[in-house]
Amino acid sequence: MLAENVSIIGLGLIGGSLARGLKRAGLCNTVRGYGRREAALQQAVEDGVIDDYSLDLREAVAGADLVVLATPLSTTEALMREISDVLKPECIITDVGSAKGVVVAAARKALAGRLAYFVPAHPIAGTEKSGVEASFAELFENHIVIITPLTETDRGARDTVAALWRGVGATVVDLDVEHHDEVLAATSHLPHVLVYTLIDCLAQMQDRNEIFTYAAGGFADFTRVASSSPEMWRDICIANKASLLAVLDRFEKHLHGAREAIAAGDGGRLMDVFSRAKQARDAFARNTGR
Amino acid sequence: MLAENVSIIGLGLIGGSLARGLKRAGLCNTVRGYGRREAALQQAVEDGVIDDYSLDLREAVAGADLVVLATPLSTTEALMREISDVLKPECIITDVGSAKGVVVAAARKALAGRLAYFVPAHPIAGTEKSGVEASFAELFENHIVIITPLTETDRGARDTVAALWRGVGATVVDLDVEHHDEVLAATSHLPHVLVYTLIDCLAQMQDRNEIFTYAAGGFADFTRVASSSPEMWRDICIANKASLLAVLDRFEKHLHGAREAIAAGDGGRLMDVFSRAKQARDAFARNTGR
After folding, report:
1. A209 Cβ contact list (under 8 Å, min separation 6)
2. CA A196 – CA B281 distance, rounded (Å)
3. Given an 8 Å threshold on Cβ–Cβ distance, is A227 in contact with B278?
4. Could you say which residues of chain B have pLDDT below 50?
5. Over the stretch A94-118, which tens digit does the pLDDT of each residue have?
6. How many helices (H) and strands (E) does chain B have?
7. What is the structure's pLDDT at A221?
8. How far apart (Å, rounded) are the C-alpha atoms in residues B84 and B88?
9. Across-strand partners of B54?
10. What pLDDT is recorded for position B288?
11. Residue among A84, A104, A197, B145 nearest A189 (CA)
């Protein structure tokens, strides 16, 4: 038993999948949920995803030994502030946010007396679907969870959170907050911005009906992430603004270089870009099997 | 029997898959292949993909009733020029190029006396793999083939090519050359440029090892097309330069707008873009099942 009572704040795709995984693996005694949609929470109890729920945030965390924050990033600081004084003294607090600098900054302000028990974490897993209805216990299997401990973080608290994620099938690695945010900006946040922007751009063209009619399988793969939650991604983009803008500016320069090569009919330069990219993508496929 | 003897010039993923599909459906008597790699052609004969092959282009098409050009776009005009005077008088010539304006222009120059029997076509199907080794007979099933007939195109020749594609499982639609090139620039050519450019950009970053290590499933989907043939895509970008630059410029404006919204922390504007994109992507998924 890693933690007697776990409270999951925000029972969506990630929170719901974690709840299912914890219960399946018997890693805790009770899982309590907190969310905005009571019907979904009731259904989650009926389906055995959680043991009970509360629509009152402070009540939801009152007896918890471990609290998981799994709501959009813009809500994090206010949530921390509201729960801080009702938590049990050694209650571990962790989160699942896709940007960590902003979460750590929020914790320094809103959980000042509890930093030893705050363990920032980010499961690199998900689908383009949202909500507890789309959750499943296997979501984290063979996926990486990045923990970005603070200097203040208690080793035992960090190890409990790591064990929890391992218990639902994930591999855990530690990374600096800044490094996490740079890497995720490049590998996840920028691609989402590109796809959302492309789809919105195409949907405003006169040819939009033909465009979506004659799209091939590659387009479906390429654009799948645009079905993800707009609210979550709005928050991520703003939360990780500095790192995202840095890699976006870099990308815009590369894209403009490709544009110039196309305009000049410079096949050699395009061949260089495309060949290097294929080499890197093929290596990624070999290393990950994807 | 749609055509007694078919010659496929360029036995790669598309040419090889068409050869397999034609033979499986019994739509022709013999399929002859032409390519650059003799070992691959020999293997294709052994595997029953083709009946025979020639390394001599003119010999490869000499007795054909239907010739399919399935090589990278930059080779099209020279191939047409070289085969034009050895073809049987009513031999139908078709192609599989992803850009059609450039192919039609080549045909007007190199197949001037034979335009009635030239049927430009584009099967919207493929995988990120290349070569006859990756070909399979089912590649075109439930995919669209766009035919862009010229005013000169003989109706019977067009119908034969359409029947051939239907025979291997595809749905055939007719489109204007210009319209085809605009739509495909938006839906296929631009996404390939974005992904190739992004991967090349990331592969040059200091963090590149972590970037590719911590990439999630969305990244794998998003970037899969970067494993496609660089040579083929270089040719497509240059062949469809005008339409590609038009949609690329439009996209760059949208992307810069998103950049400004992120920099300003303008959550409302990002939410608008992301929500509209999600709506369009969800509609695409509903309509296509992808």
Report:
1. none
2. 9
3. yes
4. none
5. 999 999 999 999 999 999 999 999 9
6. 13, 9
7. 85
8. 9
9. B34
10. 84
11. A197
Q: In this predicted structure, what is the pLDDT of residue A205?
A: 94
Distance, in Å, from the CA atom of B141 to the CA atom of B17, rounded to the nearest integer, reads 11
Handedness of CA A214, A216, A222, A223 (dihedral sign): positive
8 Å CB contact of A212 and B280: yes
Whether the pLDDT of residue A157 is over 90: the answer is: yes
Using DSSP's 3-state secondary structure scheme, residue A32 falls into strand
Q: Which ipTM value was assigned to this complex?
A: 0.92
Task: Return the residue in A245, A281, A282, A286 with the most chain B beta carbons within 10 A, the one to mutate for interface testing.
Answer: A281
pLDDT at A126: 87
Which residue's entry shows tokens 């973080």?
A: A153
pLDDT digits 0-9 by tens, A37-73: 999 999 999 999 999 999 999 999 999 999 999 999 9
0.90 surpassed by pTM:
yes
Place of tokens 């080549």: B106
- Which residues are CB-contacts of A2 (< 8 A; sequence separation ≥ 6)? A27, A28, A66, A160, A163, A164, A167
Check A267 against B217: CB less than 8 A apart: no
Task: Name the strand (E) or helix (H) holding A47.
Answer: none
How far from the centroid of its chain's Cα atoms is residue B273's Cα? 30
Query: In 10 A of CB B258, how many CB atoms?
Result: 22
